[in-house]
Design a protein that fits this description.
about 325 residues, about 75% helix, MetI-like fold, mainly alpha, globular
Length: about 325
């Protein structure tokens, strides 16, 4: 197992090198440039330099006056030391900005992920156990609604009903106006209250695919020969489902769990934008629109690392769920 993990880590490092090179090349070709916008604004000041002079000066300042390969290796030498430079738009070190915004996205995505697992897996199993029943049809309809609903549309409905009509929640933001005068417990509850609608949005729009996936895999397992043998031996239906069928259903589900890691830390760009949550998704969206190459570069490489790490975790979980993997 150690040899397998070491081999996968080495492959991941090689993949990350080429992925980061491709991302850096794309970032250098972005049509929107913060440098150009900044140079244009500086050139309008009385007695200032010309636009071209400011562009040349800022490009030299930010290291854009060299070729792509030289610029990439210059960036890579800093990234290895965890020095990603300063954000052009946010005007602070990238890691400092990252630490400020990542926890909003993490707790938002973690709460939605837990609800998704708690709701989707039991409903998917129930739909498979009672195939073509009213339960199966109800779960299927609910799943299709979740798959079909765009997050921006569902979030708008939630805000209209619960914020504008009922007035139960604030329409956006993470804290109330009186947040600073609250006690620590009240502050925590205030933030949690502002996260309810975003969590519901993320859960509903993502739960459908998981329910359909669990149902399809459970149906495949229930039609297997060893399940019929277990039933023929006189085992109870609950033992057949919980002990034999569910364990084998976990194997493909582990793939989704490993792939969910980027979502936990990568942020929900649209949802954070709609509810004005200053998470990593919202911050990255603003950075892209402003042409903030250093921050966008860091964010894309960060997602690549999470994806590779998620695949590695999925492979390790395979061995924990299925002993045959360990034997191989």
């Amino acid at each position: 197992m150690k040899k397998f993990i070491l081999k996968r880590l080495l492959i991941s490092v090689v993949l990350l090198f080429f992925v980061s090179l491709i991302i850096y090349t794309i970032m250098r070709c972005m049509p929107t440039s913060y440098v150009e916008n900044q140079a244009r604004a500086l050139a309008t000041r009385p007695g200032s330099k010309s636009y071209q002079e400011w562009v040349s000066q800022l490009n030299a300042q930010y290291g854009l006056d060299v070729g792509v390969l030289k610029g990439y290796f210059r960036w890579l030498s800093g990234a290895i030391r965890l020095d990603f430079g300063d954000s052009w738009y946010w005007n602070q070190p990238i890691l400092d900005k990252f630490k400020d915004v990542i926890w909003y996205s993490f707790f938002l995505s973690l709460a939605a992920f837990i609800l998704e697992m708690v709701i989707a897996i039991p409903l998917g199993i129930a739909a498979a156990r009672k195939q073509y029943s009213m339960t199966d049809y109800a779960v299927t309809v609910f799943a299709l609604i979740g798959i079909s609903l765009p997050s921006f549309f569902f979030a708008t409905i939630l805000k209209y009903v619960f914020s504008i009509k009922l007035g139960w929640f604030d329409i956006s933001g993470t804290v109330s106006r009186m947040h600073q005068s609250m006690t620590d417990t009240q502050k925590l509850l205030d933030i949690a209250k502002h996260m309810i609608l975003p969590v519901i949005t993320l859960t509903v729009v993502s739960i459908g695919g998981m329910m359909r996936y669990v149902r399809a895999n459970m149906l495949e397992v229930l039609n297997s020969d060893y399940i019929r043998t277990a039933r023929a031996k006189g085992l109870s239906e609950n033992r057949v489902i919980n002990h034999h069928a569910f364990r084998n259903t976990l194997i493909p589900i582990v793939t989704l769990l490993g792939g969910s890691l980027p979502g936990l830390f990568g942020g929900a760009m649209i949802t954070e934008q709609l509810f004005q949550i200053p998470g990593i998704g919202y911050t990255s969206y603003v950075s892209v629109m402003q042409g903030d190459i250093p921050f966008v570069m860091f964010y894309m490489v960060f997602l690549a690392v999470l994806t590779l790490l998620g695949n590695l975790i999925a492979d390790i979980l395979y061995a924990a769920v299925d002993p045959r993997v360990r034997v191989n």
